[in-house]
């Protein structure tokens, strides 16, 4: 098998292509937002606000938990997909790519641990209200 037929080369090319498409999409989105703002300024209208990203609305605990779950699910999907591909192609080299999913799995586990620790810290930092005596 030549290096051009290697699954790693195909995956690398796919990742690079997706990254470039994401950058292009971001460029055109920002360009459209700037045009919208300039048009509003020219017409004397109030400048539209920047859209608030959903991440900024989440608490650190929820954001960390969400990121951890997404990373773990993604890693399991990668590992299972490449395990099936290895079975279909009958080449054990493809399982090397499947092992890359463990990196995402461990990062996701780290985010879940961070979420747990943040939640624990929030509970400890919360002031304990002593019971009030209303017997007077």
TrEMBL record:
Sequence ranges assigned to domain DUF6249 in this UniProt record: 10-117
Segments passing through the bilayer: 6-28, 67-88, 94-113
Presence of the UniProt keyword Transmembrane helix in the record: yes
UniProtKB keywords: Membrane, Transmembrane, Transmembrane helix
Pfam families: DUF6249
Protein name per UniProt: DUF6249 domain-containing protein
């Amino acid at each position: 098998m030549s290096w051009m037929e290697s699954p790693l080369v195909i995956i690398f090319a796919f990742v690079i292509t997706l990254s470039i498409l994401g950058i292009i999409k971001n460029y055109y989105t920002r360009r459209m937002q700037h045009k919208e703002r300039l048009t509003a300024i020219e017409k004397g209208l109030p400048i539209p606000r920047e859209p608030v990203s959903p991440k900024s609305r989440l608490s650190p605990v929820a954001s960390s938990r969400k990121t951890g779950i997404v990373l773990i699910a993604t890693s399991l999907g990668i590992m299972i997909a490449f395990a099936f591909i290895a079975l279909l192609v009958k080449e054990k080299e493809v399982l090397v790519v499947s092992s890359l999913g463990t990196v995402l799995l461990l990062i996701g586990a780290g985010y879940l641990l961070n979420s747990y620790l943040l939640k624990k810290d929030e509970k400890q930092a919360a002031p304990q209200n002593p019971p009030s005596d209303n017997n007077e």
